[in-house]
Amino acid sequence: MEEEIILLDYWASMYGMRTRIALEEKKVKYEYREEDLSNKSPLLLQMNPIHKKIPVLIHKGKPICESIIQVQYIDELWPDTNPILPSDPYQRAQARFWADYIDKKTYVPCKALWSESGEKQEAAKIEFIEVLKTLDSELGDKYYFGGNEFGLVDIAFIGFYSWFRTYEEVANLSIVLEFPKLMAWAQRCLKRESVAKALPDSDKVLKSVSDHRKIILGID
């Protein structure tokens, strides 16, 4: 009998993309439920009463919140198919460090890139470029962040790629030209079926953000 797994998510969330990729990597069947973030479902509010945010993974009626925690939970639950975390304790610790770095350093500037203008947006650009430089240096000449194997850090960051065009258009950033190694890494990741299925079209993200800026913020 198959286990009941439900994912409460939003199509453009780079955080939810992580969980979708992990589930696909493990070949786990699940029910996807799209959330309206302006009118959150009673189930979402019930399952994540603290933060009231997506994504929420529901397994056997029990919620697991926060995307990186979800990815690790999925890896522990189905360890034999496409391991996400390395078996070596030091390498595993390093992977967790960089996943945590991505979470702590990207949320604020990335949101400001598309939701703000003027000085706040300019400050966010500087901050995000520094993050990209750090990750570019960490990637170096490796195939994936962890070496030859697709893993936690790749899953933690690849969802942002679908937003790069939006950041370039609305914040006048130059990511594709300035970070060719990261771009090549993203293309390698996209060759994986799990990633290709999880990441939305960049044009769709850009249109959604542009519409939001015009309607809510009055910004072109």
UniProtKB/TrEMBL annotation:
The keyword Transferase applies. It holds the Pfam family GST_C. PROSITE patterns: GST_CTER, GST_NTER. This is glutathione transferase. One of its GO terms (cellular component) is cytosol. Its main location: cytoplasm. The keyword Transferase applies. It is an enzyme of class 2 (transferase). Coiled coil: none annotated. InterPro entries: Glutathione-S-Trfase_C-like (IPR010987), Glutathione_S-Trfase (IPR040079), Glutathione_S-Trfase_N (IPR004045), GST_C (IPR004046), GST_C_Tau (IPR045074), Omega/Tau-like (IPR045073). Keywords: Cytoplasm, Detoxification, Transferase. It is found in: Cytoplasm, Cytosol. Belongs to the GST superfamily. Tau family. It comes from Arabidopsis suecica. One of its GO terms (biological process) is glutathione metabolic process. The lineage of its organism: Eukaryota, Viridiplantae, Streptophyta, Embryophyta, Tracheophyta. It comes from the Eukaryota. It catalyses: RX + glutathione = an S-substituted glutathione + a halide anion + H(+). GO terms for molecular function: glutathione transferase activity. Residues 3-82 form the GST N-terminal domain.
